[in-house]
């Protein structure tokens, strides 16, 4: 998964070197906050540091659970077929030096030589992407909070549960591959990265999907496309820097994300067919809340605004931008034929207009934010041994 989009970054501000408890301004998509970060005490070895919204739960009317039960067979015939058989799937080892082979050291040497040509800001993006992928336990948990589709036993044989487990298993290769690759480059501080992963998984995520598969499948449709775009862009940049192997790795991961996007957008397409009004309202609800990125609670124990800083670098390198956010929204509006939906309720009609015109408004805001972002500061990132990177 990918990045947070900064719709109105206050990048003209000069951030001090990151340290705990600095009051640097947080430009956050999470604005209604019900708790403040707590300091860890010896009696409480871990408590989430980042703030989350008021937690709304089980907002889907109970009778709608039946819709998902009735879609069991449809999901088997339309969604499970999008999974790849394990025997035909790529594995991280296909792209990494084989530790058993005679040529292992030579291959590692070549990998490290290629990686020397790549600048630090690129590594900040790739590390952020890898950390996001590595928080996969959180995403599987999120899917298993959903009413009507959760895996009730851990080995449930419903189509929804099979999808969630197999999706997780496919995604699991993404973090594995990027993690091992980055380790071999010798360019990044693995201990700081591993700490960030531990903090992030411990903190969870706050997508505001309220146990509703309507909200969550809209969220995942958006996210899979966002990751398809960001991995595609890190691949393109790796190629520009002359690392074709890394480009191939990013492209391979991006192709998985695209297939997952197909699955989730298909589910939402079906929901639009069965329940156009409810799905329209859910789509508008997610867009009103803004799609927070999966790793938005990221923390390395040093930088209070780590996620915002990582996102700013990704934005500057064009790995994932506010324009991409607007483009994804446009794509989904077209994919689900939202403009042409008819027979909606009063509220459905009203939010249909909101959703269909939102991308244009976001692009306008983005242009103004870009103007303000001209004097971006440099800040140190723990992931690259505290070296400075321009935001
Ligand atoms: Fe992924
Ligand atoms: Fe994904």
From TrEMBL:
<keyword id="KW-0809">Transit peptide</keyword>
<keyword id="KW-0275">Fatty acid biosynthesis</keyword>
<dbReference type="InterPro" id="IPR005803">
    <property type="entry name" value="FADS-2_CS"/>
</dbReference>
<feature type="binding site">
    <location>
        <position position="257"/>
    </location>
    <ligand>
        <name>Fe cation 2</name>
    </ligand>
</feature>
<feature type="binding site">
    <location>
        <position position="171"/>
    </location>
    <ligand>
        <name>Fe cation 1</name>
    </ligand>
</feature>
<comment type="subunit">
    <text>Homodimer.</text>
</comment>
<feature type="binding site">
    <location>
        <position position="257"/>
    </location>
    <ligand>
        <name>Fe cation 1</name>
    </ligand>
</feature>
<keyword id="KW-0408">Iron</keyword>
<feature type="compositionally biased region" description="Basic and acidic residues">
    <location>
        <begin position="37"/>
        <end position="49"/>
    </location>
</feature>
<feature type="binding site">
    <location>
        <position position="133"/>
    </location>
    <ligand>
        <name>Fe cation 1</name>
    </ligand>
</feature>
<dbReference type="Pfam" id="PF03405">
    <property type="entry name" value="FA_desaturase_2"/>
</dbReference>
<keyword id="KW-0934">Plastid</keyword>
<feature type="binding site">
    <location>
        <position position="224"/>
    </location>
    <ligand>
        <name>Fe cation 2</name>
    </ligand>
</feature>
<dbReference type="GO" id="GO:0009570">
    <property type="term" value="C:chloroplast stroma"/>
</dbReference>
<comment type="similarity">
    <text>Belongs to the fatty acid desaturase type 2 family.</text>
</comment>
<keyword id="KW-0276">Fatty acid metabolism</keyword>
<dbReference type="GO" id="GO:0006633">
    <property type="term" value="P:fatty acid biosynthetic process"/>
</dbReference>
<dbReference type="GO" id="GO:0046872">
    <property type="term" value="F:metal ion binding"/>
</dbReference>
<dbReference type="InterPro" id="IPR005067">
    <property type="entry name" value="Fatty_acid_desaturase-2"/>
</dbReference>
<keyword id="KW-0560">Oxidoreductase</keyword>
<keyword id="KW-0444">Lipid biosynthesis</keyword>
<comment type="function">
    <text>Introduction of a cis double bond between carbons of the acyl chain.</text>
</comment>
<dbReference type="InterPro" id="IPR009078">
    <property type="entry name" value="Ferritin-like_SF"/>
</dbReference>
<comment type="pathway">
    <text>Lipid metabolism; fatty acid metabolism.</text>
</comment>
<dbReference type="GO" id="GO:0045300">
    <property type="term" value="F:stearoyl-[ACP] desaturase activity"/>
</dbReference>
<feature type="binding site">
    <location>
        <position position="260"/>
    </location>
    <ligand>
        <name>Fe cation 2</name>
    </ligand>
</feature>
<keyword id="KW-0150">Chloroplast</keyword>
<feature type="binding site">
    <location>
        <position position="174"/>
    </location>
    <ligand>
        <name>Fe cation 1</name>
    </ligand>
</feature>
<feature type="compositionally biased region" description="Polar residues">
    <location>
        <begin position="24"/>
        <end position="36"/>
    </location>
</feature>
<dbReference type="InterPro" id="IPR012348">
    <property type="entry name" value="RNR-like"/>
</dbReference>
<keyword id="KW-0479">Metal-binding</keyword>
<protein>
    <recommendedName>
        <fullName>Acyl-[acyl-carrier-protein] desaturase</fullName>
        <ecNumber>1.14.19.-</ecNumber>
    </recommendedName>
</protein>
<feature type="region of interest" description="Disordered">
    <location>
        <begin position="16"/>
        <end position="49"/>
    </location>
</feature>
<keyword id="KW-0443">Lipid metabolism</keyword>
<feature type="binding site">
    <location>
        <position position="171"/>
    </location>
    <ligand>
        <name>Fe cation 2</name>
    </ligand>
</feature>
